[in-house]
Design brief:
The complex is a heterotrimer of chains A (135), B (108) and C (126). Chain A is an alpha/beta fold and 135 residues long. Chain A has one domain: DsrEFH-like (Hypothetical Protein Ychn, Chain: A), CATH 3.40.1260.10. In chain A, 38% of the residues lie in helices and 19% in strands. Chain B has 108 residues and is an alpha/beta fold. Chain B has one domain: DsrEFH-like (Hypothetical Protein Ychn, Chain: A). Chain B is built from 4 helices and 5 strands; from the N terminus they run E-H-E-H-E-H-E-H-E. Chain B has a 5-stranded parallel beta sheet, sandwiched between helices. The longest helix of chain B is centred in the N-terminal third of the chain and has 14 residues. With 126 residues, chain C is α/β, with parallel strands linked by helices. Chain C has one domain: Hypothetical Protein Ychn, Chain: A (3-Layer(aba) Sandwich). Helix content of chain C is 29%, strand content 21%. In chain C, the strands form 2 sheets. Chain C has a 5-stranded parallel beta sheet. A two-stranded antiparallel sheet of chain C has the order 3-4. In chain C, strand 3 and strand 4 form a beta hairpin. In chain C, helix 2 runs parallel beside helix 3. The longest helix of chain C is centred in the N-terminal third of the chain and has 11 residues. Chain C starts with a strand and ends with a strand. The chains are: A alpha/beta (135), B alpha/beta (108), C alpha/beta (126). At the A-B interface, helix 1 and strand 5 of A face helix 4 of B.
């Protein structure tokens, strides 16, 4: 049975490099055969928001397609897909009260709404758990 | 024996946080724990041999291994030959391995 | 499974959230059955001080009805059976004396921290 890691993330998109590092960690875990369980707390609940839109970049003279600006919900989907192709666990739970506060309505299919009790369940069911805090 | 992984993401020169966490590393080692440090993001600014930072020498005296995210090093133009002697470049795979082996990770 | 929550930042969006979200999370974890304790370090040792109040925020005609009450949160955690400790070296750096602390808050030195952390299955730094 593959090992699994639980990861709690807090940062909203586009604010901290920590977000990219966290996604790189999830990607590395999956590529190394670990299942992952993610609990998104506070601003991180916006990461799987499908209303994010890529945009052009006039300063660089790039249209939207050329700019190919990252939208974190695509990152979430990419990791889900990677997990599926490798037959690994991928679970993403958004903290429900944080969702309500921030109006995060449309999310990547498969992302669940939950509470700290879900994080506790993830921790109990995983081989290890790490909290990636915000500042 | 407990193993701890201190993940340092912040510039060690912007505050005394890195210094304080090196004190934590010393305290953990004194109590018999194994400790490793993983520098990510601006934390890799601690990795240059020429950096004016006593904490790396302290970690070396404590025999605390220090890894630095190779991606973050490249982002900041820090080459392998610039690294302090007790710092090794590593991918995040090493971080995954530590977590998979049960290290208690404290992310700063 | 025993959990130690090491909390360092303080007063981060606490007025907007009407809570410290990590203390709140800790209470929620304990409600879900986790044996979670708290170690306040760095800026967060200030949370151990008696007499804090965040009341009185007004913006135009809006006024806050439920300001965050950190002292209450710390007290409720202690009453629920959690150990809440503050790092002595960080208290003394900030000139906070033991007499100023909320009843029930323990003082933990950096010396012996390894032995303390070893008692927990999970240690998370916030």
């Amino acid at each position: 049975m593959p090992k699994t890691l639980a990861v709690l993330m807090m940062d909203a998109p586009y604010e901290q490099t920590r977000t990219t590092t966290a996604f790189r960690l999830l990607d590395a875990a999956l590529r190394n055969g670990y299942g992952v369980r993610v609990f998104a707390y506070e601003g991180a609940v916006s990461l799987p928001l499908t209303l994010q839109k890529a945009h052009p970049n006039a300063i660089h003279g790039r249209n939207a397609e050329e700019e190919a600006h990252p939208t974190p919900h695509v990152w979430v989907s990419a990791l889900m897909h990677l997990a599926q192709t490798k037959g690994l666990m991928f679970d993403w739970v958004n903290c429900g009260l944080c969702v309500d506060e921030r109006g995060v309505t449309d999310v990547v299919p498969g992302v669940r709404r939950g509470s700290p009790a879900d994080f506790w369940k993830m921790v109990a069911e995983s081989d290890n758990a790490v909290v990636i805090p915000t500042r | 024996m407990s193993r701890y992984l201190l993940i340092e993401s912040r510039d060690p020169f912007e505050s005394n946080g890195f210094a304080l966490r090196c004190e934590l590393a010393a305290a953990l080692v004194a109590d018999g724990a194994e400790v490793a440090v993983f520098l990510v993001e601006n934390g890799v600014l601690a990795a240059r041999r020429t950096a004016d930072l006593g904490e790396l020498a302290q970690l070396a005296r404590l025999r605390v291994p220090v890894l630095a995210d190779e991606f973050a090093l490249r982002e900041r133009g820090i080459t392998a030959d610039e690294l302090a002697t007790n710092v090794k470049s590593a991918s995040l795979d090493a971080l995954v391995t530590e977590l998979g082996n049960g290290a208690k990770a404290l992310w700063n | 499974m025993r959990v130690l929550q090491i909390i360092e930042p303080a007063h981060r969006a606490t007025l907007e959230e009407q809570d410290d979200t990590v203390l709140w999370f800790t209470r929620a974890l304990r409600g879900a059955g986790a044996a979670a304790d708290v170690l306040l370090v760095g800026t967060a040792v200030g949370y151990a001080v008696r007499g804090q109040t965040s009341a009185g925020l007004t913006l135009g005609a809006w006024s806050q009805r439920q300001p965050p009450d950190i002292e209450h949160e710390i007290t409720k955690l202690i009453e629920s059976g959690a150990t809440v400790a503050a790092l002595s070296e960080d208290l003394s750096r900030r000139g906070i004396t033991p007499e100023a602390l909320i009843d029930g808050v323990r003082v933990q030195s950096r010396h012996g921290l390894g032995r303390l952390l070893a008692q927990y299955d999970r240690v998370w730094k916030w």
